[in-house]
Amino acid sequence: MQRVRFAPSPTGFLHIGSARTYIFNWLYARRHGAAMILRIDDTDVGRNTQESLDSIFEGLRWLELEWDEQYRQSERLALHREIAQALLEKGYAYRDFSPYVELEEKDWEGGRWLFNPAMREMPRAESDRRAASGEPFVLRFRVPRETLEAVRFRDAVYGELSKNTADIEDFALLRGDGTPTYHITSCADDLDLKISHVIRGQDHLTNTFKHVLIFDAVGGRRPVFAHLPLLVAADGSKLSKRKHGPVVSVTTYRDAGFLPHAFINFLCLLGWSPKDDREQMTRQELIEAFSFEGINRSNAVVNFTEADPLDPKAVWLNAEHIRSMGVEDLSGHLLPFARAAGFQVESGKMMQVTPLVRERIKTLRDVAVAADFFFLSQLPPYDPAELIPHQGDAALALTVLKRARQALETAEFSHPSLEALLRAEAGALGVKAGQMFQPIRVAVCGRKAAPPLFETLAVLGRETCLERIDHAIRNLG
Ligand code: GLU
Description:
- The chain is an alpha/beta fold and 477 residues long.
- The protein has four domains: 3-74 and 229-320, HUPs (Rossmann fold, 3-Layer(aba) Sandwich); 76-184, Glutamyl-tRNA Synthetase, Domain 3 (Glutamyl-tRNA Synthetase, domain 3, Alpha-Beta Complex); 326-376, Helicase, Ruva Protein, domain 3, CATH 1.10.8; 379-477, Arc Repressor Mutant, subunit A, CATH 1.10.10.350.
- It contains 20 helices and 14 strands.
- The strands form six sheets. Strands 1-2-3 form a three-stranded parallel sheet. Strands 4-7-10 form a three-stranded antiparallel sheet. The protein has a two-stranded antiparallel ribbon with strand order 5-6.
- Glutamic acid (GLU) binds at residues 7-9, 41, 186, 200, 204.
């Protein structure tokens, strides 16, 4: 059985690049019936935080991305040490007893274990004796320079890759305090959990040459590697919280009113495209279309500016998904945003409003602005001049509103009858339909740009419409 994993380190919030890595693993898993494994890489005790772990789960939960198995590396340390020990036994690793030195360089806290490649040659008996006497050491991988010229592997995205062994240092497997490094924990777990495909960011390519050496030394089967292009800003710099702020955090998009599946769609198109270049896709369509061949090798640009932190393509996709969603589903997503904006909205009301505003909003958060007049008991002040119709004056506006008020008092409040009624009233007054509708629209919505008039009137109901028209009449007077 195929098995893939997402292996975040809980040292920051969930980065959009990490979310994309999760999604590509997940798409692969769902397409090929593979197991999706969530492995928390939490061995770096000094840098892990609960807050970060929470943010990873929060982001994944929001995106509704499920997994099949879950592990924590900190609970698997015995396995990591065992594999490191096996490498020592087989001669693939050696102890480096170089001292730990305090450093006074700036930007570097604390000290560092020195590296002495000559320790490769230390006889095993001497190495065992010094270790037994309690002398601390770093366990290093013995990169096979004499027998191997280059480390090679075939990446599912980047093709054949190779690196001269002379350019790979004897990297650490265990630190001087005995804790295992990322290289050994990651490979030991990938082997033990029978990971068939390692799909991760291209920034891990240099690690992968080391990992290939470990897999071969342990005698395990190498997983297939697929590295993903990086997400960068328009100037080519790698996206980072420190440099680019909240645009790199998944929760920013949740709070800005993105639909989870629209945001997944957007992330997928950062570095991947389907054969037919479709853009708006459902989860199921993404699963069916996903393949490593569609992944680009060049970095993917996320477009944002300080003034407009949301990528226009993400916003466009979100609007498309909003439009193609069922009313009930969309209404459920809009409700918390309306309530968060301070409106007391019942779900039944939201169901009525949803079809009227869904063409007019790009994010869920926009509902608070686009539909406020449905939720407010009183309209915010507006300029009475807005009530005056095209090619008309205040007197005409007054006539129209008074006439409409009278008609609405006994009207049946449904779209077709309201339309027929108000068109007939316009005819009777001898004014164009538009001249009739505009004052009514502004009176009930407080603005000219609003959803279709008759549906709007029907949802607002007789009482509210009459009140607002009365208010407009007073304003004009
Ligand atoms: N914990 C590593 C990271 O977050 C895992 C990388 C990997 O092997 O997938 O970058």
